[in-house]
Specification:
Layout (H helix, E strand, L loop, with lengths): L5 E2 L5 H11 L1 E4 L5 H17 L12 E4 L2 H4 L1 H7 L2 H11 L6 E11 L25 E7 L11 E2 L18 E2 L7 E5 L4 E2 L9 E10 L8 H4 L2 H4 L4 H7 L16 H6 L12 H9 L16 E4 L2 E5 L2
Parallel strand pairs: 1-2
Antiparallel strand pairs: 2-8, 3-4, 4-10, 5-8, 5-10, 6-7, 6-9, 11-12
Helix pairs in contact: 1-5
Length: 313
Amino acid sequence: MTRLNSFAHDADGALIAASIAEHGYAIVQDMLAPDTLERLRSELQPHLDAAEGGKEAFMGARTKRIGALLSRSAVSRDMALDPLLLDLVERVLGPYCARVQLNYTGLMYLMPGEKAQPLHRDAALYPFQNPAPPTICATMFAVSDFTRENGATWLVPGSHLWDDAREPRAEEVIQAEMPAGSMLIYNGSTYHAGGANHSNGARFGCAIQYSLGWLRQEENQYMAVPPELAKTFPRRLQELMGYDMATVNLGMVDHKHPNDILNGTADSGPGELGPQWLIDADNAIQRLKVTGYAATGRPRYYVDGEVVQGPRA
Ligand SMILES: O=C(O)CCC(=O)C(=O)O
Ligand SMILES: [Fe+2]
């Protein structure tokens, strides 16, 4: 097995980010302490008990998948605000947006007997020609140990840099084996998949994803968390959920700042929607050149034994 890009929790953010830029992913150990993991498990257990397997092949018949984590788990709110994680997200996405945002929060609980998911790019939500600048910075926190047998996330290192014609080969796939408490962080353009669970226990992971603030979020955070609950969150978490200006005017409500609307602090007239710091941040981002190209759809590659079988509808 290829050596994983694994870092201690006190490693320099710039080093970890350089590894994500080069390989498309990194693993950070000890993001969650044992007692935090225990609290997270107990917060989520009632929701897991009530959850069912997926209905489509991609979602996995033997995978319990629950979103809206912020409304269900206080620990997940701390995870979304983890200083090292936010530092890495800024390093990956910051050059392309004035403000980053949450994209998705959820858990992926692979039960014994689950088959492998097809390899895919989370960033295929958006119609950019590849290679593209990063649009999504995704994580998978190991809540159980992630092992080869229980379906540790599959990854194709370096594939975030590939064009749309380049297909993954089975021998290029590695697995994010990591002990509980670790975090896999990857560029949304990196090919990856949930593995197959050949073990007797569940593989339990929590995904917290971020994206460029000017994109539509995969999971609508305004509806995922009741506003009455969101009001009790720290200001930075509210901003990451989207109660924020992505740039001047982008995200306003009735010409007021959405955070003022949420918290009931809006003035009667128009809000301050273009502070100088936001104009400066927007002027500093790298502008994207988006060219027309032949549609390539959203390829997903099934891996069967040694062979990547290629895209399937
Ligand atoms: O379960 C995993 O390890 C990855 C799941 C995934 O990539 C997805 O559902 O988009
Ligand atoms: Fe994915």
